[in-house]
Amino acid sequence: MAIPLSFFLLLFPLLAPTFVLSSPVQDPEQVVQQVNESIRNATMARRSLGFLSCGTGNPIDDCWRCDHHWEKNRQKLADCAIGFGKHAIGGRDGKIYVVTDPSDHDPVNPKPGTLRYAVIQDEPLWIIFARDMTIKLKEELLMNSFKTIDGRGVSVHISGGPCITVQYVTNIIIHGINIHDCKRGGNAYVRDSPTHYGWRTISDGDGVSIFGGSHVWVDHCSLSNCNDGLIDAIHGSTAITISNNYLTHHNKVMLLGHSDTYKQDKNMQVTIAFNHFGEGLVQRMPRCRHGYFHVVNNDYTHWEMYAIGGSADPTINSQGNRFLAPNDADNKEVYTIISLIGSNIETGGGGGERG
Ligand SMILES: *[C@@H]1O[C@H](CO)[C@@H](O)[C@H](O)[C@H]1NC(C)=O
Ligand SMILES: *[C@@H]1O[C@H](CO)[C@@H](O)[C@H](O)[C@H]1NC(C)=O
Question: What region holds the Pectate lyase domain (predicted)?
């Protein structure tokens, strides 16, 4: 098969991840303290204002939901993140783009009005949806930098086909999307910018695959039942916050760091906050390698093998998570050899661990 010229011309930037990779913050504990402070502030605001407060104590939600006109100020959401992905601005400084067409017939020449047409653009865009819709993608959705996918106010499902890929791009926000039943894609051409498309080999079939991505924030999504991971971040990805998501019905939930030998993942810094790890989950909530992982205020109500695990000397800072162990003695063990956490039944706080 003839390979288009543009494939060669533009391959180089794709293979130069240092171009977009951000360096890790020097003092991750400082980011942890900031998260602590914003949670404390939100909790105090709620307590002191009582019924006058719209607050829930969740600093991310209170940041935008307390604005009755949030629909008119959608881009303010970009300033509501906490943790390592806090500086992901997505399409904050760009135009609003309204998706009107759920189809995805041609991944190389996407039609205006489709989600794929929006995410590949070079300019920043804040992408919203005209109505409820289910989008069955034909191939992976390759996002370009500075994009927000904002499903607030409508019910949007990305399901039944390949799902979202954040590869060597930066400043991505994905909010309020139902991502499920994701399948493998590949052995196909897919466009990733107005001027470039390339050949994709078979993909894993993740819900959200972050590969060499930075400044990424995934918030308020529901994720379930995908072919590989629900959210995986590998290959030098960093500056990520995964918050307020509802994850269910899946085996390998969240892989952060692909292999023990891939040392670049030492720079990986991820905040996992306010997620509900719910029914039908088996393992990897998350499974961490090399980097620094702040796992804070999550609710674990189901795991069949283990909840939090790590290898290759990760730092896993686990605070304020609630573990409601299934009624099976094995699930209540703390395994120290490779740092599996999943035992503190209804812990209020603490449970910190250094691997
Ligand atoms: C957050 O900060 C408060 C006050 O400084 C401290 O008492 C608490 O232990 C901290 N919590 C965590 C989870 O670090
Ligand atoms: C918490 O509140 C204090 C006092 O209003 C403020 O100075 C500080 O910046 C807030 N911290 C965070 C992380 O929001």
Answer: 132-329
Per residue in 292-306, pLDDT (tens digit) is 999 999 998 877 787
Q: Is residue 209, in this structure, part of any structural domain at all?
A: yes
From 30, 33, 36, 294, give the residue whose CB has the most ligand 1 atoms within 8 Å, as the site to mutate.
36
Q: Which ligand is nearest to the CA of 44?
A: 2
CA distance 25 to 29: 9
Active site residues: 284
Give domain status of residue 2, yes or no. Answer: no
DSSP track, 165-186: EEES-EEEEEES-EEES-----
Is the pLDDT confidence value at 347 over 70?
no
Identify the domain containing residue 309 by its residue range: 83-354
User: How far does residue 88's CA lie from ligand 1's centre (Å)?
Assistant: 25
User: Which CATH number does the domain housing residue 247 bear?
Assistant: 2.160.20.10
Q: Among the atoms of ligand 1, which is closest to the Cα of residue 320?
A: 13
Cα–Cα separations (whole angstroms), residue 186 to 4, 112, 130, 180, 307? 17, 23, 29, 18, 31
For residue 16, pLDDT beyond 70: no
Could you tell me if the CB of 37 is within 6 A of ligand 2?
yes
**Per-position DSSP letters for 13-46, written without gaps between them:** HHT-GGGTPPPPPS-HHHHHHHHHHHHHHHHHHH
Ligand 2, residue 40: give the atom nearest the CA.
1
Query: Ligand 2 pocket test: which of 33, 36, 37 has the largest number of ligand atoms within 8 Å of its C-beta?
Result: 37
25-62: pLDDT as tens digits: 889 999 999 999 999 999 888 877 766 667 888 999 99
Integer Cα distance of 189 and 158 in angstroms:
20
Does the beta carbon of 257 lie inside 6 Å of ligand 1?
no
